[in-house]
Amino acid sequence: MKLIAAWLGLLALPVTAAIEIGSRRELFVDDALIEKISGEARLQLHQPVPREIVLSHDAPWEGTGSGYHSVFQDGDRYRLFYKSWTVQLKDGKYTETNPLYTAYAESDDGIHWRKPNLGLHDFQGSKANNIVIAGVHLGEMEVDAGHPAIFRDDNPAAAPDARYKAMLRARRPGERSPVPTGGVMAFKSPDGLHWTPMSDRPVITDGAFDSQNLAFWDAEHGVYRAYWRYFAEASGVERLGRPPGIRGVRTAVSKDFLTWTDQRDLNYFDSPPEQLYTNQVKPYSRAPHLLIGFPARYTDRGWSESMRALPEPEHRAAVDKEVPRYGTAITEGLLMASRDGVNFKRWNEAFLRPGPERPGTWNYGQQFIAWHVVETKSDLKGAPNELSLYASESYCTPPGERSDLRRYTLRLDGFVSVQATRKGGELVTKPIRFSGRKLVLNFSSSAAGDVRVELLDEKGWPISGYGLDDCPPIFGDAIERPVTWRSGADLSHLAGKTVQVRFVLRDADLFAYQFQP
User: Long-range pairs for 378-381 at CB < 8 Å and ≥24 separation?
Assistant: First the structure.
């Protein structure tokens, strides 16, 4: 009787609702669609490959303090906006030799960049420069042009004179706190070069804002989203005169870019409290329902033999006397992803490490990843496009002439993979419903490895004709390889029905999958 009762109880359990994925491309940057992973398979975080220095901030109005880059593709051009700032350690003191500006560069391929002579703003008696925003006074606020976050607004309702928008930090005149409490100002532009304020007062005021505070149009949900810096309360974190708390991220939404509501702190799954200096959240262009961020992790390791063994020890010791955190703090890039904009899967291992020890590295300000990734051509003839991302180095370090921006590359969708050894492993998705006629994979295998795919019905049984034995091994390295079973590749008769997908891998990586028309 007990067995019968238990069996009847199982029948009474609610059936897990299928997740509607339509024809979206799905990545493995989170586990929202994963039911189980078994065998010798795991989720593997991948690291970008370092490439060339694409931009040196070496103009008289630039320098070692330049950073906070915003990059995006705009038609057949790539556009880059950044903080332009010269700061030098002179006679034991940090000295600013010019105001903070927003400067501009552009490219035809995302690899070779130029700084156009725009003739818009005066610098030391000349307008022969690439400055697009200079600090101004608006109402009671002093706008800081050195903390910009700029994007192209793809909201269909955006006015022609507001096709580009920006968030800029602001503070009250005379305030020189390292963590200003003013807020962020909203700006607009018809072309990305000529900017005007959308309001004479900050649109967000609850925060610290000593970072790259940003906002963008979220087409998936029909709202603007903002992400900005704040200090979360935490005990025992006060150090070097900084306010108590942990550097964190806060978010809100808006319909008009001016009135922001539903303000919330970001939540992380299975991540320890850590100092996050930036956030760099934005929809991933190939899967815009996924918000991907590249926060900079800030770690003050203090003085030790390892710290003294890092590059430029004399400079570290000198700057420690002026700004101690510049001497012993180290920064690197992380990866995080969200489907709702608030709850994030944050990978606790570094996405972009400081890398080999060399001048300009292993210091505060290195590996601040630009906002955001762009798609560029591979330098391998015939290879598919890849992702380019950009990160800073030589920030506030000797020889004191400039900071640099280095390009890194990653395969399309290549942030995280399901990876299996030669012994093999598998991943089964949660119940889903799709639309389309075929399933394509972004995968890579060894010459001896492969991937096979099985489709399961709503009861978890293999669907006739789409079992594992019906799927010939798939091997190679492709961004969009159609899956073919012995009965063919057409899945249209299964569209709209509840299925699970079982991926079985040997010495292979699976980066993404998509049901396509």
Answer: 378/409
CATH 2.115.10.20 positions along the chain are 49-413
| pLDDT tens column, 314-355 | 888 888 888 777 889 999 999 999 999 999 999 999 999 999
- Inter-CA distances, 309 with 322, 328, 354, Å: 21, 12, 14
Instruction: Tell me what the pLDDT averaged over the chain comes to.
Output: 90
SS3 label, residue 92 = coil
Report the distance separating Cα 256 and Cα 253, nearest Å. 9
CATH of domain 15-45+417-516: 2.60.120.260
Confidence at 93, pLDDT banded by 50, 70, 90: low
Phi and psi for 224 in degrees, rounded to 5? -85, 140
User: Nearest Cα to 387, choosing from 73, 105, 150?
Assistant: 73
pLDDT tens digits along 444-453: 999 999 999 9
Q: What is the pTM of this model?
A: 0.91
Whether 97 and 86 have beta carbons less than 8 Å apart is answered as: yes
Between the alpha carbon of residue 426 and those of residues 38, 417, 459, 484, 504, the distances in Å are 5, 12, 19, 18, 4
Half-sphere exposure of 243 (CA within 13 A, CB side): 16
Any idea how long the chain is? 517
The CATH architecture of the domain made up of 49-413 is 5 Propeller (2.115)
Query: CA dihedral defined by 97, 102, 106, 111, rounded to 10 degrees?
Result: 70
Using alpha carbons, list the distances in angstroms from residue 192 to 79, 150, 161, 195, 430.
9, 8, 10, 7, 43
Contact 366, 393 (CB under 8 A): yes
User: What confidence tens digit (pLDDT) does each residue in 296-309 have?
Assistant: 999 999 999 999 99
Kindly tell me the burial class for residue 458, based on how many C-beta atoms sit within 10 Å of its own C-beta (0-12, 13-18, 19 or more): middle
Nearest to 99 by CA among 69, 151, 49, 137: 137
